[in-house]
UniProtKB/TrEMBL annotation:
This protein's name: SaqB
Signal peptide interval: none
Keyword flag Transferase: yes
Biological process per Gene Ontology, one example term: fatty acid biosynthetic process
Pfam families the record matches: ketoacyl-synt, Ketoacyl-synt_C
Amino acid sequence: MTARAVVTGIGVTAPNGLGTAAYWAATLRGESAIRPVSRFTPDRYPARLAGEIRGFSAAEHLPGRLLPQTDRMTQLALVATDWALADAGVRAGDLPEYDMGVVTASSSGGFEFGQGELRNLWSQGSQYVSAYQSFAWFYAVNTGQISIRNGMRGPCGALVSDQAGGLDAVAQARRHVRQGTRLMITGGVDASICPWGWVAQLASRRLSTSEQPDRAYLPFDAGACGHVPAEGGALLVVEDADSARDRGAATVYGEIAGYGTTFDPHPDSGREPGMRRAIELALADAGLAPDDVDVVFADAAGVPEQDRIEAAAIAAVFGPLGVPVTAPKTMTGRLCSGAGALDVVTALLAVRDSVVPPTVHVTPAAEHGLDLVTERPRRLPVRAALVLARGYGGFNSAVVVRSPHPQ
């Protein structure tokens, strides 16, 4: 299991940009997409802001037969996959179908589709419930639809670990590549901005109830008051480096070099949370020392205690102010399983362009001891980046990406 897993294609569907170029340009401008919810009337709910993808029409990108059988998250995932494959220069038939697989992450499944069918059941009767409800709501549906649409019959799977899932899926894809699969589609997309999904997220008690878009999501800030939910994510083409070279891949964004994952102990156990250990495992897997990491993309919970735990873990590994830290998700909100995958993409773009995107709206609290990149991008050589993600309930994951040409 020594094959290098590299990223050769990227597809992004984010609140502040559809497509990689639009997303990256908006991120470097510090352009926030957090606004009042428009997909339903949120007046009766305590949280009313979201990072929504506006201007997306699935009918402009997908065949009509797919529209009635897919949830919004699946439509976004299919389009992101199309863009990632086009970016990688991979067409149907280029590789044997059993040499290609799919691993995605999902936090909620097709909530909006499910809500619509439950409404039909309650208001009209069971004969009005779509047969597609049997799978359109399911956590694994993105993997299934991507594999069917693109004739990918190799290893397939789905991971459910909230925001950490986006990183877990990328790591699982790397594992399959190391075991001999030539190409994997991986990442995560979520979209549950509907009343049913909203109530489920409110149950975590971590949503911000601020109605000021520039003050609602403030990780590592003294004013931190929760996070803003969002929709979208990213899909990546991950290949064996030798296979990518042999087929003439035009672009290699970077290598998935290391991965670590842990689970937090019970809060009353008195034991240390697992984030620091996940970081150490990822660095060891990549064969890197802390000084080799040029930037950390933080999980950035926006909940004071969670921020304290993450900052302490980063400081324990890198030292106080020891490495630049950023959280560009302050522009999008937290995308559930899509967040980790989008952060991996953002880290790869930072490696490509030698620039760290900013954490907008945040004034870092001195108590956290972080060198947080705020206000504007910071130009610096980025050879290796660490991406962190946590899931509700205790999941911790860390992924190291590095330049395809490490020095």
